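=== RUN LOG ===
request id: a7f3
mode: sequence -> structure
chains: 1
length: 117
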Amino acid sequence: MEATRRLNHVLFRAKDEEEGLLIGCYPTEDAGLCVYQASAGALTAWCFGSPLRVVEIQIAPRSTAELVNYFRVETISQLCSMFTLIFGDCGGALGIERLLEHLGLPYSVVECPIFEG
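=== RESULT ===
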């Protein structure tokens, strides 16, 4: 999972005997932002038919710049730190989506393919 290597701001991490959840974000090479959510375990398998699910919220550079202005920070890294403070719980990714919708900023949600074998 290449995104895991790039992940530099963890918003939330939890793991118990049956389920794990990781939410984080990282700046993209084009000055955008990617919010990353990975879940793994029995509940994920029951809900989605696969024991691992990875979803990315991809925020384009223009929307990212609007978020930087909205939070009155100077860099995307500082924006990620703000996200950690504000959205640092198990509903963090959904909270970020709601903020983007509230502000009228475009974004895309991509379910990443999982290759087993």
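=== NOTES ===
Confidence is low (pLDDT under 50) at residues 1-5.
The radius of gyration is 14 Å.
=== END ===
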